[in-house]
Amino acid sequence: MSTDDLIETFRAQLRDDPDVASAVAAIRALLGFLRQDRGETIQGLRSSLRDAIDTLSRVDSSVAVNSGGELFLRFISLTSLEYSDYSKCKEIMIERGEIFLRKVSLSRNKIAKLCHPFIRDGARILTHAYSRVVLRVLEAAVESKKRFSVYVTESQPDQAGQVFINLQKMAKALRKLNIPVTVILDAAVGYIMEKVDLVLVGAEGVVESGGIINKIGTNQIAVCAKAQNKPFYVVAESFKFVRLFPLNQQDVPDKFKYKADTLKTSQNLTEEHPWIDYTSPSLITLLFTDLGVLTPSAVSDELIKLYL
Amino acid sequence: MPGAAERGSELSEQIEAFVSRLRGGGQRPRSEDTARQTLSLLRKIIAHGRWGWAGELMDLIRTEGRRMTAAQPSETTVGNMVRRVLKVIREEYGRLHGRSEESDQQDSLHKLLTSGGLSEDFSTPYPSLRANVIEAINELLIELEGTTDNIAMQALEHIHSNEVIMTIGYSRTVEAFLKEAARKRKFQVIVAECAPFCQGHEMAVRLSKENIETTVMSDAAIFAVMSRVNKVIIGTKTILANGALIAVSGTHTLALAAKHHSTPLIVCAPMFKLSPQFPNEEDSFHKFVSPQEVLPFTE
């Protein structure tokens, strides 16, 4: 499968289903790549998969695509350990890949079921930018007959917050169910924090220390929440767990901070605005994942169980 | 069959009696008694209930369990024991089904990637499942008996001579803990009386019978006395999933005072008090009692 075909499959996935997570689209594209691969050895497969993952990161440089790719590689290695015959191995891989994708599609519902009891009646929630998982959680809370109001940050530079409330299906449905939504400036987070009961954000990636990588501005919100003693909840699917351990903001690799086109064309990266930031685990109260409700320290346990 | 029907109605009578006792509870019942009663009741349900395979049994236990927990949501031991029994059933089923011993029951990323099937189906009937599960529950009951002693055995490592220990209210686990240490060491205990029921008085009387130097003080003096205390040892009603405690009123004050003075706080609790719930539904955890006992209506 050529690189162009791969990129086209990936883009098609994102186009056809706007609700799909970019990591899942990446894994689907890689599974298609695996099906059409005509190599005969595991080593060959692994190296062509690595190239494929690089190609995909050049299209969409987000952390999620990277973690999806790593997970897929790990999946290949684990399966290849069990079966030595290559063709049988490949069959099992494809079968398990399908099962994995099916399980993963249920993960948002699992998370919503875990998280909505934490939203009490009359709660005021603050959220940041656009997260499909957060939308699903709020939907589940409405289904369980809770009344609450939501503050959304405008989330520059792409005004994802605005997109959030103007998005056709979700926002209209939320409005129909009478959820009051207020858009606030990014700078107004400190001002609004005293009114808020809890902060609920999604994540693009969950790092080994239990911290998260998310849209720029999340760290600020977390610090304000800690200062005012408000719980800071993160909702993320388990395929977003990534093998990074940043110690500070500078440690996050540049390839995640900037969009793929900026990386290719820019002269001096330090003059570009970063799109993501790192929130340290001490600021996070709980993480809701499809593996259960985890404290930030439990995240490293999960990653160790998988990778070691 | 008259025998089975009789047993069935007797069973539901017993369940009803247990549920109404839970609901009514004016006197604070011993958590260990509640745990033991729950386990015996569940054992009876498994032995006499009508079920064919593990899935059916688990649904039966879940329904009864939900009824029991709904009667008194603040008694988390009931829910914990029901969950233990469900886990026992899953394990016994897994063993009979031929799955390996070390297979991870919990979800993990690893399991997500390597498992073959979508979900576990508990539908294969095994005749020996009933006996196995009942045996496992008997083991659990035996474990229950020994909890206080197992905790008390560790007392000598934590309490040293000439220490001042503070505690609050009356906890049988802490009483056993302190008594065990008193056999070899000499120390002082300050008990916060825990108004309005003043369980602290009973604790002080029992401790002083063992020749432990005990002082009773009012709850208001907790912060004032804390600077002279070496350790705080308390019991609790429940331990929640994030490590938080649901304990007698006044424990939060004690904990804040201890934190301010950097005094170590030790909690003694048996395993049936560990609950997988999070502290979110505030209203279902608090237990409210009639004000009659503090301010009688006649006055």
From TrEMBL, chain A:
The keyword Cytoplasm applies. InterPro entries: eIF2B_alpha/beta/delta, elF-2B_alpha_N, IF-2B-related, IF_2B-like_C, NagB/RpiA_transferase-like. Keywords: Cytoplasm, Initiation factor, Protein biosynthesis. Belongs to the eIF-2B alpha/beta/delta subunits family. Its main location: cytoplasm. This is Translation initiation factor eIF2B subunit alpha. PANTHER family: TRANSLATION INITIATION FACTOR EIF-2B SUBUNIT ALPHA. It is found in: Cytoplasm, Cytosol. GO terms for molecular function: guanyl-nucleotide exchange factor activity; translation initiation factor activity. Acts as a component of the translation initiation factor 2B (eIF2B) complex, which catalyzes the exchange of GDP for GTP on eukaryotic initiation factor 2 (eIF2) gamma subunit. Its guanine nucleotide exchange factor activity is repressed when bound to eIF2 complex phosphorylated on the alpha subunit, thereby limiting the amount of methionyl-initiator methionine tRNA available to the ribosome and consequently global translation is repressed. Component of the translation initiation factor 2B (eIF2B) complex which is a heterodecamer of two sets of five different subunits: alpha, beta, gamma, delta and epsilon. Subunits alpha, beta and delta comprise a regulatory subcomplex and subunits epsilon and gamma comprise a catalytic subcomplex. Within the complex, the hexameric regulatory complex resides at the center, with the two heterodimeric catalytic subcomplexes bound on opposite sides. GO terms for cellular component: cytosol; eukaryotic translation initiation factor 2B complex. It comes from Bambusicola thoracicus.
Automatic annotation (TrEMBL), chain B:
It comes from Bambusicola thoracicus. This is Translation initiation factor eIF2B subunit beta. Its main location: cytoplasm. InterPro entries: eIF2B_beta_subunit (IPR051855), IF-2B-related (IPR000649), IF_2B-like_C (IPR042529), NagB/RpiA_transferase-like (IPR037171). Belongs to the eIF-2B alpha/beta/delta subunits family. One of its GO terms (molecular function) is guanyl-nucleotide exchange factor activity. It comes from the Eukaryota. One of its GO terms (cellular component) is cytosol. It is found in: Cytoplasm, Cytosol. Keywords: Cytoplasm, Initiation factor, Protein biosynthesis. SUPFAM superfamilies: NagB/RpiA/CoA transferase-like. Component of the translation initiation factor 2B (eIF2B) complex which is a heterodecamer of two sets of five different subunits: alpha, beta, gamma, delta and epsilon. Subunits alpha, beta and delta comprise a regulatory subcomplex and subunits epsilon and gamma comprise a catalytic subcomplex. Within the complex, the hexameric regulatory complex resides at the center, with the two heterodimeric catalytic subcomplexes bound on opposite sides. Acts as a component of the translation initiation factor 2B (eIF2B) complex, which catalyzes the exchange of GDP for GTP on eukaryotic initiation factor 2 (eIF2) gamma subunit. Its guanine nucleotide exchange factor activity is repressed when bound to eIF2 complex phosphorylated on the alpha subunit, thereby limiting the amount of methionyl-initiator methionine tRNA available to the ribosome and consequently global translation is repressed.
